[in-house]
Amino acid sequence: MKKYLSFFRIRFLMGVQYRAAALAGVVTQFVWGGMEILIFKAFYEANAEAFPMTFQATTSYIWLQQAFLAFFMAWMMESEIFDSIVNGNIAYELCRPVRIYSMWFARSVANRLSKGVLRCFPILIFAAFLPAPYGMAAPESISSFLWFLLTMVLGLLVTVSFCMLIYVLTFFTISPQGLRIFFVSMVEFFAGSVIPLPFFPDKIRTIMELLPFAAMQNVPLRIYSGDLAGTYLIKPIVLQVIWLILLTVFGYFLCRYAEKRVSLQGG
Amino acid sequence: MEKKKCGLQLYIHYISINVRSMMQYKSSFVLTVIGQFLVSFNVFLGIYFMFQRFHQVKGYTYSEVLLCFSIMLMEFSLAECFARGFDTFSTMVKKGEFDRVMVRPRNEILQVLGSKFELTRIGRMLQAIVMFIYGIACSEIQWTVAKVLTIVFMLVGGMALFTGIFLIYAALCFFTLDGLEFMNVLTDGAREYGKYPIGVYGKRMVQICTFIVPYALVQYYPFLYLLGRRTSGVYVVLPLLAILFMFPCYGLWRVGVRHYKSSGS
Lengths: 267, 265
Hints:
The complex is a heterodimer of chains A (about 270) and B (about 260). Chain A is an all-alpha fold and about 270 residues long. Chain A has helices at about 1-15, 20-45, 55-65, 70, 80-85, 90-95, 100-130, 140-175, 175-190, 200-210, 220-225, 235-260. Chain A has one domain. In chain A, helix 1 runs parallel beside helix 7 and helix 2 (about 20-45) packs antiparallel against helix 3 (about 55-65). The mean pLDDT of chain A is about 90. The model of chain B has no long low-confidence stretch (mean pLDDT about 85). Chain B is about 70% helix and about 0% strand. Chain B has one domain. Chain B is globular and about 55 Å long. A two-stranded antiparallel ribbon of chain B has the order 1-2. The interface of A and B includes residues 28 and 177 of A.
């Protein structure tokens, strides 16, 4: 366990170094969030009754989504890992007395965490100062804030364990290109980063909420804004835990299997 | 005149080299095309489900928004197809490969453009064309010669505008040595949020997109003419004004080239 913690620490410290890149990211995300809110405002004005959440909940959702982009966006995967599989550097990793799965897992969590921590505060603080329905609202209650923190950690872990599957599958396909773009666009859509899940028609939404993708950003962001509360909390959180266990166990054994029959590329 | 013809021939030669080398990796090519398609398909699905719920936004119907989105997507993917060389220009500067470009007796822009030709963008293009046909079939536009011309001008103007932005992106690399992530707002952001007519975002945004970066010239104003909400003939040629945007971009590029200090090894 200790060695994975130090992998985590090294990666985290490395990620925190890139402050200028983070600043550029913050500016970009801020524009993105602003545009997104303008769109939803236009739709809200078109037909306020058809809006599935309150407008304030929607804007909080959008700002949180932008602030914690690095936690949940599937496309933020590590090209170094893909490269090591493609060019054969994976051989060195295989020599080490560590489990590849656990090492990559620790490293991905650290990477996302460091990026997220660097970027979230400027966005959150700035968004908190925007006038009422357009800025970030305070959380519904202390308990919903605590649930938000818990589910965010769970959501981050589910996202990482899903991305782990893509890394591991690259062992079999060698070229990550197709796999990556396919899974990433699937996650984007089903996780609610194109439009939040409540905006989908009810029938489709009930199915979507059962999928692992809904266990990523959908749960914490909606809990924060009070869209999910009370007894409605139980089901998504249980689903998050179930998906986390299923994805990690499956990924772990798939990785063990892949390690045994891996053929090294490059030279 | 003689030299220009040579330039064009050279460019076509560049493209044919690029395409042939890409075709060596056929499966990778196909997958990337599908990927390009999927990415913009997501945006399309987003629009579809939003309209399932709201039916209209600021008076624009579903098919009208699709038409708007498809034209914007076509402008962007055309520009990206040809001007992709600027997008990867930061690596060229970083590795010092621009030195080689400078010593050749040909226009440097031509060489940078020729360094990359992204045929994979036809995935995005395909999506745009399907939506375009659907949008035209459903939007009940009364077609006239002027309106067909408007669309052609929109494509030309839009392509010029995006090429100009790519040019700025590349020119800034001379100073920063690295691509600036912020520039994504102007390229990917415009593609992403250009899906709705700019008027949807409010008056302030229309002003910004008219006078600072003239997206509205190739999207909002001529689009209103297409829908018959504006009738003045000025709107037909308005997209061509966007070509003027390329002059300051070119100026910045010239300054950049003069400022260039070799890097890399």
